[in-house]
Amino acid sequence: xxxQERIGTSEAFFLIVAAMIEVGTLTGARxxxxxxGVDMWLVSPLETFFSLGAIYILTRxxxxxxxxxxxxxSRQIAGRWVAWPLSLGxxxxxxxxxxxxxxxxxxxxxxxxxxxxxxEVILLxxxxxxxxLASRGLEPLARACIIIIIVxxxxxxxxxxxxxxxxxxxxxxxxxxxxxxPVLRLAFWRISNAEEMSLFLILVPFLQQxxxxxxxxxxxxxxxxxxxITVLTTCQGVLGIELLKYALIxxxxxxxxxxxxxxxxxxxxxxxxxxxxxxxxxxxxALLWASAYLAGRLVNLNDYRLLAFYQLPLVFxxxxxxxxxxxxxxxxxxxxxxxxxYLLIIPAILYLIAIIRFPPAGSS
Length: 364
Prior knowledge:
Blueprint: H1 9-20, H2 24-36, H3 40-64, H4 70-78, H5 80-112, H6 119-135, H7 138-161, H8 181-189, H9 200-203, H10 213-239, H11 241-244, H12 250-256, H13 268-298, H14 307-310, H15 312-320, H16 325-331, H17 335-357
Organism: Moorella mulderi DSM 14980
Subcellular location: Membrane
Family: Belongs to the amino acid-polyamine-organocation (APC) superfamily. Spore germination protein (SGP) (TC 2.A.3.9) family.
């Protein structure tokens, strides 16, 4: 870790908000609608409750070892023979997640903005720009996230207000036609969707106030979920469940309803999708920074930042491997179980072992 890399609690808050909001949020409504139908609007509030529990365990584990990252404290808790495979798995998870985010973002850009531009050019441009920011270090990345969030989020929320006249409450009825269990199961499983919260497994030593990691993580997650719930609820209220299931990009379809000739900005949907694509940039940069840092730790490299570029060939290969949009979800099927493991199961096990092996001072 470079000694000058330190960020405050507020910077960590903006970093996690910017990292968690990406283009996948616009398409997530379709997946939820396929699984629970009209009860889609109930999933995200329950998901928030379950995920906050997982985030609490994860941050408590990291805060118990405030001067160490995941590789360091997992080695101290369970030994090097456990720490190495766990850290390699986390590194692969972040690289695969980077590939998934960039692939989805590339597909959205090509389908909505740059239809004639080769997908490889879009993908490579996004990766190189994000790797450059990641290679500058954590502080510049956090400052960029502050600017991006302050500029884009208010505009996105204003654009969503323009579709409120199309909102229909009957699109939320009937309530729980198949009972509560499908909704509860999906909400619990969607803990894995808080992927970027895994950054706190290495982020705590970089904080000026490591004991405020839970505060930054929980507040950042709540802000993100307010935005997610707003997007998903608006998509359901405006489009209805049946249209949602067939919409390629539900969020874009919703904003297109606010367009009509003579308005100040006639192509509101393109402005909306452009703002959302900007939000995908810090997600990719943060994941490249985290994977470069962890790779540097594993090979005992002090100045790890250029590793952000060396990872790009693998990320590019993983991103381009699915042949078409329909194959993307099936190719990245492993991300959800891996995310569930690194966000809940592994932190819970390590935290339990840490409590037993390293009890608080003064306890018997």
